[in-house]
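Quick one, tokens below:
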């Protein structure tokens, strides 16, 4: 599968903007609630630490067979960033098309508004249109909100486990 590059994705309420290092300060504030990290691990990053991380992500994967596609999620009516979505895309093992591992996170103050669901659905549609045939997410078994997002995006739990999380999967075509 050819390398993918994140492009702007629009929905009814959201714009998924390709990640830039300049997003770090605003995103650090959005994701700054320590409770947000209960299921995803780690701790909130400072704006500078997040900028450094974003610079690495924007530079791309060192493996030319892997594409790192990362977006910030903007709620258009508020003109504010509310979270991020990402996909790590590679050729599938059976050669039938690309495989993407996806993840999403929405800041605590923006949750329960359908933002994660809308952004993740848009991401999955973009991946399918780009030729990705398998979409995978790993969800903590106690994280019911993320399980609901995965379900709404068409993924189903596989019963397989990875690092204490359940593997969810969708075959797009």
């Amino acid at each position: 599968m050819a390398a993918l590059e994140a492009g702007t994705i629009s929905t009814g309420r959201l714009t998924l903007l390709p990640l830039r290092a300049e997003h770090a300060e605003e995103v650090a504030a959005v994701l700054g609630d320590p409770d947000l990290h209960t299921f995803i691990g780690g701790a909130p990053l400072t704006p500078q630490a997040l900028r450094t991380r974003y610079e690495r992500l924007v530079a791309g994967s060192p493996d030319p067979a892997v594409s790192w596609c990362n977006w910030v999620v903007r709620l258009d009516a508020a003109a504010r960033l509310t979270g991020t979505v990402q996909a790590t895309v590679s050729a599938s093992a059976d050669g039938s098309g690309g495989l993407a591992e996806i993840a999403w996170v929405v800041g605590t103050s923006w949750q329960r508004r359908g933002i994660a669901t809308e952004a993740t659905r848009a991401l999955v549609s973009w991946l399918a249109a780009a030729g990705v045939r398998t979409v995978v997410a790993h969800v903590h078994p106690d994280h019911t909100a993320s399980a609901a997002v995965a379900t709404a995006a068409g993924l189903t739990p596989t019963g397989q486990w990875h690092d204490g999380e359940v593997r969810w999967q969708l075959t797009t075509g």
